[in-house]
Amino acid sequence: MGQTTNDLQRRRLAAGLSQSEVAARIGVTQATVSNWEIGRTVPAPEQLTSLRKFLGDFHIGSSRPYAGETPSGGTQPFSAWLRGERARRGLSVAELAHKTGLSGQTVRGIESGRFPNPHEATRKALSDALGEDAPQSPVAEAEDARTPDDDPSPLAVWLNKTRTEKGLTVVELAKRAGITTQAIYNIEAGRIDNPRKGTRLALSRALNEAVPDDTLRETEAATRVVGLGSLTDFDPHDEKDLPDEPGVYVFYDVSQRPVYVGRSAKISGRVREHEQKFWFKRPIVDTASYIKIPGDELRKQVEQILIRFLKSNAVLNRNLVDRD
Questions:
Q1: Cis peptide preceding 283, ω within 30 of 0
Q2: β 258-264/232-234 pair status
Q3: SS3 call for 262
Q4: Do 194 and 132 fall within a single domain?
């Protein structure tokens, strides 16, 4: 039987290495290593090879082997095959999605390893569109249970690609943009899908490149709530990123579980009040989102609906921590 996601973490800790140290050896971000350890994504074949050189042979992800990978790690994962074949034909994600009838988010999710074992019908559609036989999974799989909403956002893909092309590290870009390194890690890791306009502009100026219009449109469409507006992400630990607008906000922990729902006529002021609380720190509160709602009565209604829907998941609300 293959090993579990935490085997990477166990191997890393046994070697006395931090996530940042592993990331530096592989040439990725600390957030990427964190995502590998929790099973949110899987490394590309060359990254896996590098990991095994100094951590030993192991499987990462679920207890099942990768699609297309034998227990000995001898063949190519489906995600890597798809990335390579698409690139070899000069197709964009959108073009391949159009050819197959799949969504662009689904294609990105498969390539990133978020959907490591897509349904057979999906595999066939991609194989037919590319004119090549895909590597076969050694196990029969149902389609990955994660939804396309777990895919990296269009902005995350653009940011990572542009930063890499410019030869900048996350630390260097953060310094240029005047935002936190954690914010950039969170955007690239998909924890922040739709950062505030000021954050986007700061990144564009630092990279000397505007975010493409289609990326902005796709981001807006993916986060829009009909009748209200867009769900916007912010870093609750960055004073400059706190929204001064009225609305309802949600705090998420490091695993992206919602832990607190709140409302305020001025969200930044309310968040500053939270800063004094013992629970307001990472990893308990890692990221946040809000939606602008000017009316006080509607804010109350939306807040109560969210709290009731989330039930025990919003653990801080459940324990009546710091309520109005």
A1: yes
A2: unpaired
A3: strand
A4: no
**Structure-token pair, residue 226:** 């009909």
Predicted confidence at residue 180, as pLDDT, reads 86
Evaluate whether residue 72 is within a structural domain. Answer: no
Residue 148 lies in a domain: no
Domain count, the chain: 4
For the chain, the average pLDDT equals 78
C-alpha 113, offset from chain centre: 12
* CATH code of 14's domain: 1.10.260.40
Q: Considering the domain boundaries, does residue 27 fall inside one?
A: yes
Predicted confidence at residue 152, as pLDDT, reads 64
Amino acid at 130: L
The range of the structural domain enclosing residue 36 comes to: 6-55
Q: What six digits make up the tokens of 128?
A: 């037919």
Report the predicted TM-score, pTM, of the whole model to 2 decimal places.
Answer: 0.52
Q: Do 251 and 212 meet the contact criterion of CB atoms below 8 Å apart?
A: no
| Residue numbers in the chain where pLDDT is lower than 50 | 1-5, 61-75, 138-150, 320, 322-323
